[in-house]
Amino acid sequence: MKHIIVVGNGMVGYKFCEKFVQKSEFKNFKITVFGEEPRPAYDRVHLSEFFENQDAKALEMAPAEWYADNNIDLITGERVSDISRQDKTIKTAKDREFSYDYLVLATGSSPFVPPIKGVEKEGVFVYRTIEDLEGMLAYAAKLKAEKPNAKAAVLGGGLLGLEAGKAVMDMGLEPHIVEFASKLMPRQLDLRSSQVLQLKLESIGLNIHLSKATNQILGNGSVVGLEFGEDDVLDVDMLIISAGIRPRDELGKNSGLEVGVRGGIVVNDKMQTSDEHIYAIGEIALYNQMIYGLVAPGYDMAGVAVEQIIGSTEVVMPADIDMSTKLKLIGVDVASFGEPFMPASKGHSIIFENKTQHLYKRINVSHDGKKLLGGILVGDASTYNMLHQIYLNGMAIPEDPSQLILPASDGASSFGDVTDLPDEAQVCSCESVTKGQICSAIENGEATDVAGVVSCTKAGTGCGGCKPMVADLTNATLKALGIEVKEGVCEHFELSRQDLYKIIQVKGYTKFNEVLDNHGTGGHGCELCKPLIASLMASINADTANKEYAIQDSNDRFLANIQRNGTYSVVPRVPGGEITPDKLIALGEIAKKYDLYTKVTGGVRIDLFGATLKQLPLIWKDLISHGFESGHAYGKSLRTVKTCVGSTWCRYGMAESVSFGIELENRYRGIRAPHKIKGGVSGCIRECAEARGKDFGLIAVEGGWNLYLGGNGGATPRHAELFAEQIDNETVIKYLDRYLMFYMRTAKPLQRTAAWQERLEGGLDYLKEVIIDDKLGIVEDLENEMQTLVNKFECEWTQAVNNPEMMKRFNHFVNSEEEDDNLVFVPMREQKMPEPWN
Amino acid sequence: MNAIAEKYKTVKIDDVKVWFKAAHVNDFPEDGGACVKYKDLQIAVFNFKRLNSWFACQNLSPEKEEMVLSRGMIGDHKGIPMVACPLHKKTFSLETGENLNGELEPIAIYPVKIEEENVYIGFSE
Ligand code: SRM
Ligand SMILES: Cc1cc2nc3c(=O)[nH]c(=O)nc-3n(C[C@H](O)[C@H](O)[C@H](O)COP(=O)(O)OP(=O)(O)OC[C@H]3O[C@@H](n4cnc5c(N)ncnc54)[C@H](O)[C@@H]3O)c2cc1C
Ligand code: SF4
Ligand code: FES
């Protein structure tokens, strides 16, 4: 039995273990792993997700039991301090000694902290471990409590620095990025693309400072600012340093292994260091005089080291390593692949730039015009996977290569689809999974859907960037095999939402159990199909959420939005945003009476927070007595129709936007749809109501309304598309009735109109044919169905407070009148908030 | 784990010392749940009508330590009866308390019996 000691339990050290235990030779080895961090290896690449939920477990590569189950000794929280190469032993910081046959160094790297005066001050952080993030969160919370507009800067505008900048923004601090170079992401982007990226980032609220050399970190004990030049100071309350990485090669240096001038332990293509019994992999390894700061090459190195140790000495590291990357910031697309900057001697570049739309695309093509050598995408990286594949596999490119990046005029894609890729094309570079492996997993029956492919090939489990491609490939392969691609809503139904809609409509079902027993796959339903079927029955029968409340989504069940601490928010409808002073006073008085936190929402109405279950009906009784009704802020239904003041007051107004907005809001209120619906009505092209960001939007023009459809804010913003021009009120309503009903009949679960419209085969033209030209002969049905829903509207809160049986559900306990004793509120400015989650 | 989570420990049927009469069966929605107070504990009780069984577990969601599980939706995952937390849809087995879609600590489970249309929950103290 040979003993392997792995030093470092990071991403690559873990991958070494994972790959080793899959080998039959593993039975002849014993592995002991030392990790300095207090927990088992976790997914550092997705570290920023920790800000969302502070769930360290969710990031684990494998739980501690995995190591034990596989006969690996994992010793966390213990640093290896010395190697004695003569005796083949190591010593730990706890002064324990262990002997090895093979030693694998996977110590990774640490953030480089430049020797600037003041780096030791309180409030200066690096961004590498969960502990770093915990420290930042605590500090940010403290800052925010002390001052409302605290600022934080990130030192370094590279890939990681920008990610840190986004994290700062998400923590609610004013974000600043300070970069020494004259451009952002200097290693991946050329000057022009970096300028486009800068515009984009500034538009979402990041402040960017280029060409700034930081001389000093100011502050008495804790950070208060950065000094660049004598009169050039940036006030900040917190600083995150992201100025590059330094390999943790202390062990190599101390034991006389060959190290590089700028650090890193030198390895050959077998991942062997200058001592044949010692291997180095991941961010510690200096291969081809380079440190590769990405996981994919590290994983490959882990695989090579495993093969070498078990004796498959022919498996070595390739000389060329792909360094293509995609930035994983939400809402900002940036990618570079192959050779992003290429000297003119090697080929020529084709560049497409549109600064107003924050778009920049560059591809580098060989002189003979046959090969793609690399490129940069900013603003829209949706073609990254495909371009990357063309580059990696040396695939043929169109005669006019500009087609690869120019927006196609006819909407058709200019490169073939995923099925054209060669079998050896590496689709998932993190886990080295090829197209061939994915297709054969389906062909030989190992997997029948995307989830199955992911679990049996591991594709998509790394950075996740390849997931869309894995899904496309899976679906294309299934189709080629003549297998219908399942669109079932969950394990209880193989039917799609659209099919279920038809079935419920035709059979007239009114109970969840009827649908499940007659059309389900067995079982008892779940959190996916229950609310879906509740919503379908509501869309078809005009039921309110009071019907069969136990199948309603948790917010619908209590007709309110659940908040962080299990209390609820209350949002009465304020159609069009128009409200009388008396009603405003009533809202204020009710909020005071029940001690509720109040704020004006982004949907131009007023939200009252912090109501307990028991208070909900009491509050609503008061609201209803003042003429309010449910605002359905909890439902997948119409939210608000936002209006501008329009021609009644505004000197530019062309039409009465408020009056029409109120009419539309009252028409569609309460109707259940696949997702929420929002509208907007602006009185002129200045568009103060942001109508084009809504599911439906109207803008008054000379001669009537322009109607826009399928807009969206949120995570994937999209402007609504112009559908009809200069139409009158009546035509607007006719088209909207048809549009909304058609959407309700055919969309997928939880699909907003924007996503639905985008994927509609035939696009906007088809939609016009259906809605305006009545190509399918259904407009009359659509209008009648909508009119029935409109006629049957009933305020569900009024319904609930007038029915003692329905009221029973609003009690915290069934056997006591007491309130939840676990609730803690803390003061915030002049109001209150729930105690923060720790 | 903090003090409030520690108050909840699974009770096996053999260890029941007290059968606490909680409420009438009609106080619980069919295929849904409600919360019962016992001493300083909050217990979520579910009337799983489709299985003709009753389940009880802690009302405390182990993810964020809020008292909400009784308001969650029930159903099954691959045949295991489960409840989905209303906050972030973490699902837990109602038979073993195990977190079915993550790595959270299991929740505590309590025995339930029905006698003369009354719901009783079993506690060890
Ligand atoms: C209260 C409010 C924020 C505020 O204080 O201003 C809010 C609060 C929530 N929004 Fe919002 N959104 C609010 C206006 C908006 C807006 C602005 C608007 O309506 O013009 C948007 C962008 C416009 C849009 O929807 O296209 C918006 C885009 C979202 C999204 C992203 C939707 C998307 O398609 O990408 C979600 C997530 C979702 O629905 O899946 C979301 C979800 C939520 C949820 C339900 C998150 C949650 O699960 O708890 C929040 C709970 C509401 C509550 O507790 O009452 N909220 N949310 C706003 C309520 C407006 C109202 O009066 O009803
Ligand atoms: C925020 C962030 C985002 C990133 N995003 C991406 C991305 O999108 N794509 C990408 O490819 N890469 C990304 N990376 C880089 C990626 O995380 C690293 O390439 C990868 O983690 C390297 O793995 P490793 O095992 O070599 O090093 P590490 O993961 O750093 O692991 C080394 C481990 O060894 C331990 N250790 C060190 N010395 C000792 C010792 N003497 N004794 C015991 N233990 C020791 C350390 O504590 C550490 O736990 C990102 C990194 C960060 C921080
Ligand atoms: S959109 Fe036109 S009508 Fe409305 S407020 Fe702006 S300028 Fe006035
Ligand atoms: S390429 Fe990163 S997960 Fe597949």
Automatic annotation (TrEMBL), chain A:
<feature type="binding site">
    <location>
        <position position="644"/>
    </location>
    <ligand>
        <name>[4Fe-4S] cluster</name>
    </ligand>
</feature>
<keyword id="KW-0408">Iron</keyword>
<dbReference type="GO" id="GO:0015980">
    <property type="term" value="P:energy derivation by oxidation of organic compounds"/>
</dbReference>
<dbReference type="GO" id="GO:0050661">
    <property type="term" value="F:NADP binding"/>
</dbReference>
<feature type="domain" description="Nitrite/Sulfite reductase ferredoxin-like">
    <location>
        <begin position="563"/>
        <end position="623"/>
    </location>
</feature>
<keyword id="KW-0349">Heme</keyword>
<feature type="domain" description="FAD/NAD(P)-binding">
    <location>
        <begin position="3"/>
        <end position="296"/>
    </location>
</feature>
<dbReference type="InterPro" id="IPR017121">
    <property type="entry name" value="Nitrite_Rdtase_lsu"/>
</dbReference>
<dbReference type="InterPro" id="IPR041575">
    <property type="entry name" value="Rubredoxin_C"/>
</dbReference>
<keyword id="KW-0285">Flavoprotein</keyword>
<feature type="binding site">
    <location>
        <position position="684"/>
    </location>
    <ligand>
        <name>[4Fe-4S] cluster</name>
    </ligand>
</feature>
<dbReference type="InterPro" id="IPR016156">
    <property type="entry name" value="FAD/NAD-linked_Rdtase_dimer_sf"/>
</dbReference>
<dbReference type="GO" id="GO:0050660">
    <property type="term" value="F:flavin adenine dinucleotide binding"/>
</dbReference>
<keyword id="KW-0274">FAD</keyword>
<dbReference type="Pfam" id="PF18267">
    <property type="entry name" value="Rubredoxin_C"/>
</dbReference>
<feature type="domain" description="Nitrite/sulphite reductase 4Fe-4S">
    <location>
        <begin position="635"/>
        <end position="771"/>
    </location>
</feature>
<dbReference type="InterPro" id="IPR005117">
    <property type="entry name" value="NiRdtase/SiRdtase_haem-b_fer"/>
</dbReference>
<feature type="domain" description="NADH-rubredoxin oxidoreductase C-terminal">
    <location>
        <begin position="324"/>
        <end position="388"/>
    </location>
</feature>
<protein>
    <submittedName>
        <fullName>Nitrite reductase (NADH) large subunit</fullName>
    </submittedName>
</protein>
<dbReference type="InterPro" id="IPR006066">
    <property type="entry name" value="NO2/SO3_Rdtase_FeS/sirohaem_BS"/>
</dbReference>
<dbReference type="GO" id="GO:0042128">
    <property type="term" value="P:nitrate assimilation"/>
</dbReference>
<dbReference type="InterPro" id="IPR052034">
    <property type="entry name" value="NasD-like"/>
</dbReference>
From TrEMBL, chain B:
<feature type="domain" description="Rieske">
    <location>
        <begin position="20"/>
        <end position="121"/>
    </location>
</feature>
<keyword id="KW-0534">Nitrate assimilation</keyword>
<dbReference type="Pfam" id="PF13806">
    <property type="entry name" value="Rieske_2"/>
</dbReference>
<dbReference type="GO" id="GO:0046872">
    <property type="term" value="F:metal ion binding"/>
</dbReference>
<dbReference type="GO" id="GO:0042128">
    <property type="term" value="P:nitrate assimilation"/>
</dbReference>
<keyword id="KW-0408">Iron</keyword>
<dbReference type="InterPro" id="IPR012748">
    <property type="entry name" value="Rieske-like_NirD"/>
</dbReference>
<dbReference type="InterPro" id="IPR036922">
    <property type="entry name" value="Rieske_2Fe-2S_sf"/>
</dbReference>
<keyword id="KW-0479">Metal-binding</keyword>
<dbReference type="GO" id="GO:0051537">
    <property type="term" value="F:2 iron, 2 sulfur cluster binding"/>
</dbReference>
<protein>
    <submittedName>
        <fullName>Nitrite reductase (NADH) small subunit</fullName>
    </submittedName>
</protein>
<dbReference type="GO" id="GO:0008942">
    <property type="term" value="F:nitrite reductase [NAD(P)H] activity"/>
</dbReference>
<keyword id="KW-0411">Iron-sulfur</keyword>
<keyword id="KW-0001">2Fe-2S</keyword>
<keyword id="KW-0560">Oxidoreductase</keyword>
<keyword id="KW-0349">Heme</keyword>
<dbReference type="InterPro" id="IPR052034">
    <property type="entry name" value="NasD-like"/>
</dbReference>
<dbReference type="InterPro" id="IPR017941">
    <property type="entry name" value="Rieske_2Fe-2S"/>
</dbReference>
